[in-house]
Design brief:
- This protein is an all-alpha fold.
- The protein has two domains: 101 residues, no CATH class; 133 residues, no CATH class.
- The chain contains eleven helices and two strands; from the N terminus they run αααααααββαααα.
- Strands 1-2 form a two-stranded antiparallel ribbon.
- Helix 4 packs parallel to helix 6 and helix 9 runs antiparallel to helix 11.
- The longest helix has 29 residues.
- 39% of the residues are buried.
């Protein structure tokens, strides 16, 4: 037998020597890490503020003008919101024409009369809805029910805004409510980004946290109180009570709209405010705080 040829053992290379990191390497890695990070809460908040500037100007204008101009402004906002809602649930075939007429009717009734006329306009929606649904021959019971839901949620809420504007010092109370609502929302957003640990409602809105809710509620109360501090006719106790109502109603309105979007399988209701969503995304909390604020102020008069 032939002897096997013995192969030489593989040469073992020594492991590469690791050189200590220099200050330049550390700075390079730090720059790369910062470049890879997503934009922080500060930049997103700045973008929110930039987008909100035209909306704030519009709100201030119609609040100051009051009367028919305030009513027409809310009708425009209501039509935008209701249109976005109908687009989200186009599959149920809402009766759009009846919905828009009903929304104009309840808001117009608040301007021309009082809460009883708002109720009358809402009741009148039902026969109108039925007749238009029969004429269109598309919408069924589900579509008619969803149409009524949209008019009640959006139209009746905005009608309360008109009723509130007509109360004594109603313009100032609306400003307080809006300040508390939107600053509270920003407080909840920043608080959740910085301190959020426990999910508030994962099945509805995964990004909302318990810590953000608590900070947002505190911010809403404080903002409403500070806004009322410049109004001699509003006592500190009443400002705190109004702020408490805003702090409770605003997150409920936000979660309510999030639930509707989750059921529709979408993140935003529209693109009116670009990456920050549609009109309904911006006014979801206001649709609750306007109603609560109206009844609180009415009880305090």
């Amino acid at each position: 037998m032939m002897a096997r040829e013995r192969r030489p053992p593989p040469s073992r290379r020594p492991p590469p020597r690791r050189h200590p990191a220099t200050p330049a390497d550390s700075r390079a890695r730090g720059s790369a890490a910062r470049a890879a990070r997503p934009r922080g809460a500060g930049s997103e908040l700045a973008a929110r503020i930039v987008v909100a500037i035209p909306a704030v100007a519009f709100a201030i204008t119609i609040i100051v003008l009051g009367g028919i101009w305030f009513t027409l402004g809310l009708i425009v906002l209501g039509i935008l919101c209701l249109g976005e809602l109908f687009d989200l649930y186009a599959r149920v075939e809402p009766v759009r024409l009846a919905g828009f007429i009903g929304l104009i009717g309840v808001i117009g009734a608040a301007y021309a009369g009082d809460d009883r006329h708002v109720l009358l306009a809402l009741v009148a929606l039902f026969p109108l809805l039925f007749v238009i649904a029969l004429a269109q021959r598309r919408s069924g019971t589900l579509g008619m029910a969803f149409t009524v839901f949209g008019v009640v949620w959006i139209g009746v809420a905005l009608a309360h805004g008109v009723l509130l504007r007509d109360l004594p010092h109603g313009d100032g109370i609306i400003v307080d409510i809006l300040v508390g609502t939107f600053i509270g929302d920003s407080g909840a957003y920043l608080g959740g980004r910085m301190f959020g640990r426990r999910r508030l409602a994962p099945s509805i809105s995964p990004n909302k946290t318990v810590e953000g809710l608590a900070i947002g509620m505190f911010t809403a109360i404080l903002a409403t109180y500070l806004a009322g501090a410049y109004q001699e006719w509003l006592s500190p106790e009443n400002a705190l009570l109004l702020g408490l109502g805003v702090a409770i109603a605003a997150p409920l309105g936000d979660l309510f709209e999030s639930f509707i979007k989750r059921e529709a399988g979408t993140k935003d209701t529209g693109t009116l405010f670009g990456p920050h969503g549609g009109a309904l995304d911006r006014l979801d909390a206001v649709l609750f705080t306007a109603v609560v604020g109206y009844y609180i102020w009415l009880a305090l008069l």
